[in-house]
Automatic annotation (TrEMBL):
SUPFAM superfamilies (UniProt xref): Phosphoglycerate mutase-like (SSF53254)
Name by which UniProt lists this protein: Alpha-ribazole phosphatase
Binding site for substrate: T22, G23, R59
One MF annotation (Gene Ontology) recorded for this entry: fructose-2,6-bisphosphate 2-phosphatase activity
InterPro entries associated with the record: His_Pase_superF_clade-1, His_PPase_superfam, Phosphoglycerate_Mutase
Catalytic residues (UniProt): H10 (tele-phosphohistidine intermediate), E83 (proton donor/acceptor)
One annotated Gene Ontology cellular component of this protein: cytosol
GO biological process, one term: negative regulation of glycolytic process
Pfam families in the cross-refs: His_Phos_1
Keywords: Hydrolase
């Protein structure tokens, strides 16, 4: 028994373009992001996806609405797919958040959570998927924390190594097998 997982990040946001780490703030897609979300829908609507799971943060919800809103594919929002909560640093310049990210692998950001807590949260959703979606293909639309949790599942790397690694966006997303 297994589940095929297609993972893509939310589409490009105004914060991404301006160099801010949105964290748990809602964020909003840019004009280019809305075009990328539409491209995602064209690419994935006939891809055998049984359901789309998305973070409940607005930038991910907006991506899913544009990509799948009229497709008939169920879109389910789940807070566990949220980005890491940078606490008082949500909305800070991305280079500042990136520069000391290893300080918060196990220690929570002030008013937020640690990267380990964020990855464990996403892992909780992954553990729940087989109860309803076993043998099917589902899509996750999330954030960097979602990607890191999937990579931890696939590679067994520890959280520190995953957080230290540079992230490289892939326009076609990633595919994983759970189980």
């Amino acid at each position: 028994m297994s589940i095929e997982i297609v993972y893509e990040t939310h589409a490009l946001t105004e914060d991404n373009e301006q160099g801010f780490a949105t964290g748990w703030l809602p964020g909003r897609l840019s004009a280019q992001g809305r075009r990328l979300a539409a491209d995602m829908g064209q690419r994935r609507r006939d891809d055998g996806i049984a359901a789309v799971f998305t973070s409940d943060l607005w930038r991910a919800v907006e991506t899913a609405q544009i990509a799948f809103g009229d497709s008939g594919i169920p879109v389910l929002h789940d807070w566990r797919l949220r980005e890491c909560d940078f606490g008082t640093r949500n909305g800070s310049p991305a280079p500042d958040v990136k520069a000391d990210r290893l300080d918060y692998v196990d220690r929570p950001y002030p008013g937020g959570e640690s990267h380990s807590q964020a990855l464990d949260r996403v892992a909780g959703l992954l553990a729940d998927l087989p109860s309803r979606w076993d043998g099917q293909r589902v899509m996750l639309i999330g954030h960097l924390a979602t990607y890191r949790a999937l990579e931890r599942m696939r590679t067994g790397l520890n959280v520190r190594d995953l957080v230290a690694a540079d992230f490289e966006w892939q326009p076609e997303g990633w595919e994983y097998r759970l189980g």
